[in-house]
Amino acid sequence: MKARPNSGKTYINPCRLRSIHPPQYHMARILDGAHDIHLENTTFIATKNYVVHNAAFSTSPLKELEPRISAGAMHNSLERCDAPKCHPETRVAVQEELFSWIVEGDNDPEPKKITWVTGPAGTGKTAIMGTLADRCHKGGLLAGCFFFSSTSTSSNRRTSTALIPTLAYQLSQHDESLKGVIANALEGDPIIFKKDLRAQMETLVLKPLREVQQWIDFSSWPKVIIIDGLDECEAEQFHYVKAVPGRKPAEQRTNQDAQEEILKVLEEARSDPAFPFRILVASRPERVFRLFFDPAQRTVPFASVVLDEKYNPDTDIALFLEAKFKEIRRKYRLAASWPPQNAIPTLVKNASGQFVYASTVVRFISEGRNGNPQVLLDIALRLKPTGTATVNPFAHLDALYSQILCSSPDPDLVVSWLWFMKIWAGQDDRDDKPPPAHFVNFMLETFEGEADHLLGDVHSLVKVPPLEDLQAPYDFYHKTLFDFLDDIYRSGPFYLVYTLRCNFFWEKYLAVIRDERWRVKDDNFRRGSAHNDLLSRYFHFHPFSSMPPLSRGSANFDVPAAGVEWWYHMARIFDGAHDVHLEHTTFITAKNYVVHHAAFSTSPLKELETRISAGAMHNSLERCDAPKCHPETRVAVQEELFSWIVEGDNDPEPKRITWVTGPAGTGKTAIMGTLADRCHKGGLLAACFFFSSTSTSSDRRTSTALIPTLAYQLSQHDESLKGAMLNALEGDPIIFKKNMRAQMETLVLKPLREVQERIEPSSWPKVIIIDGLDECEAEQFHHVKAVPDRKPAEPRTKQDAQEEILKVLEEAQSNPAFPFRILVASRPERIFRLFFDPEQRNMPFASVVLDEKYKPNADITLFLEAKFKEIRRKYKLTTSWPPKTAIPTLVKNASGQFVYASTVVRFLSEARNGNPHVLLNIALKLKATDTGVNPFAHLDALYTQILRSSPDPKLVVKWLWFTNIWILNTGKPAAAHLVNFILETFEGEADHLLGDVHSLVKVPPLEDLQAPYAFYHKSLFDFLDDISRSGPFYLGYRLRSDFVCEKYMAVVRDKCFKLGEADQSLLSHYFHFRLFPPAPFYMTGPSMSDFDLPAANVEWWVRATAFHRNSQSLDYAFNVPMVPVHAAMQAMAKYHPAGL
């Protein structure tokens, strides 16, 4: 039975099944006894009113191509912005050989149209292909490319589905006539994407090329198509592959089938006279490729490049080690004589041509917990392999792996942990991202802190996220670790047979079922819904059928009756069904359900508008109360920067980029904001972007909107430039899926080149201002867990994102068509110090350090004098106030930090007691500790005094953390009244508690029910999060989490039915998705009673966790492969007497 489609969705109304049965029974009975079911994009709805509005509007045929491509598979995609590239001056020989074949291959005695690049794991194939693609793109030689990746979060980079559409799209960008012919082909065969690769190649590539070849000179065209990682291409299943009564099952399609199909299609294409391109394919030397490229099997010749000793990998590895050891010297301030002269040659010899050995040695030395590079280097040099390189080319790598494992307190147990992570990654193929490390710890730890104890010395094998990063997973650096562990001859005592790996895996799973999942009153809730959702999702799709036979009688595998009940309910969802295929399916119970389907064509410039961050502009509504320089302050630094903007070309050595830096509180954002306003008024501001890690707009916290926002602002200055950008957007509608370098080229540099001849440069604005670049966070584009036989992707760091921006800006300012200066402001973090280090850069940069040179004390004095004058007026004080010594003392205490001065002013003017005389005396008498070590010592003393003025200082710190965690995790602040509702234990507690800390927290008036709490400066949490600074007010992460969880449970228990619908939605969104994933909540002692939960509230809690899934208040939602609702808790839920 195949359900009839209705605008892409099928709806079955199960209302008639309702009687006295609970909801989970109805859901179980929907498909009771059904078979041969194939449902796509299906929604099951029980509802009173159901309305569907459909509107379809015709679009250009080429628009149909865009959603079929894999933008992430292109060499310059946003997803591949931190993909591996060859280290400078390495892999030169192989790159030159391949480049020469691309450019001059037709001159060979026997020209070959396809070259296969191969080599085992760790030989740098993807780095070579990526570097070569960039080089060919710059030289106009790259016709198209596709980078497969088994670790990509984009499924269309893991299969062949998007290969031909992606190549066709890239080819269409080279010529307008070819683009038109491809559009005609799409219009003539609208179901082409449902045909096989051969048909797609013919319709979308070969036929269009034949039509245009008569009027295109292909000698001027690009030369090569690059396809990398073809061995990572996975097979899609188009048939049922298990037996059905009376029917022969289809044979399962393998990865090798998909890979061979691609090879054959490429071979046929290169033999077509209309196909002018060479094809470069890279893969591991797996059997399907060895057979296909075997000269004895092929009538048409192919070239092959094997990454072996011919290409001198030893020289490349030596260059790599020299560069990395230089970094280690800087990091640990070692003498120039380190490492010893014989160290690098010895390591190069041990590497046996494998880069993976060299990179593992570097991590072993630089990331060891003991942290003594000399000791660790000596250990690495003295390691003796058990075998010989002639028998095992990985002998030295194996010895290194063994040494690292031996450094763990329990090597055998750490191997079991590694296999647990590997099995999870290998089986959980339906999930779109790996579980966080904290969740793995929750599954495996037998005591708190065991993960750090066990894994602390194996960081060179496993990427362990920092404790405060509660979203990141564990990540393996290279698949050769499991090649080693899975080979008894190589790993020896560390070898764990398959049965023991699985026993450990299932023992831990059943321990969770037995000991954790079913204690509703404490453990189940303190662990949090995300843990249980993830468990139910994973173990539902990978049940006991995949478990090998276990020894009888093991107590570790006993399952209580509750577990059986849970499995029974899961089984009843499709009781008696078989051959069920569900894609993107949702089960819904709702009062009203309305669906609107509409597709409208929009102006490309409108598309740009949706991609910008309006809040990041200097004059945005979001920045209406952003800090600005007080009148007559920061005059010197502003004038220096303004003079550089206006007259910088007259300098003896003109510099196009200036970096403004200084520690927290030195007024960088205030200076940049004031300067942006001044430049805007004078017609000098070309564009700006103000990053903010505390912004409620996520697009101000990442780089995604940076280039579109700059381009949008530039388009406002000139109509011809706006038109050029419009053409650029029409020509490349997926530009927003490409990386920043490509976006800068398409949206800024190319349009500027087109209009530069008809625009007078002197009439243009002068400067682009980018502030708070250190607050730019990273986005993740890959799975960072291990995939069978694949190297996992490394999590992208904020430093990666920041460096990418710096490099794009550097390239832009060196382009002749780019007429603007660039002003960048950030804290002096390591990534910026290295980038702007004069010894590291060929291009000159200017830097402005906000230190004593710019007389911050004079500015702070002016600021205090003006503010004290306002306080005198407000409180009708005499002109003798403040005492003459007061302002000089406060200026000295400020240590050049404006944040101290502004906090003192708020402390005097906004305190509840409101006696400026008394409060000023308190501020002046505060004694700071460690002034020589801590430049914020006086600020810390002031923060401490303000917190102590609260009736309950420790409780107010918890409130502050609760509010801050909410903002950081949900991406938007909650209304103050909602925070009060959650936290207050008696009416008026918020005012009682926060009344004396108004100088730290902006508290909205009682009548404003929409305004949130806001913090004046991020240095408050720098203080609270540092135990050496905040002392008794320090609250560890566990205690913060305990407090948040306790308050959530109190809301569920006592207040859940007093909330309005909007607040319920916000609560469920926050607590389900943002609170529980960050940490397992370990509660001890008498406070455990705070987490008891009456059974009557179980259903409300289940519903609340699913509430955010749909604005129509879903009861239950199953969105394959995500299962957002606790299957277990759903099964045990009782109806709440009050209803939802």
TrEMBL record:
UniProt keywords, alphabetically: Repeat
Record carries keyword Hydrolase: no
Protein name per UniProt: AAA+ ATPase domain-containing protein
Family matches, as SUPFAM superfamilies: P-loop containing nucleoside triphosphate hydrolases (SSF52540)
Residues in AAA+ ATPase domain copies: 111-312, 654-847
Pfam family, one: NPHP3_N
Protein species of origin: Candolleomyces aberdarensis
Leader sequence residues: none
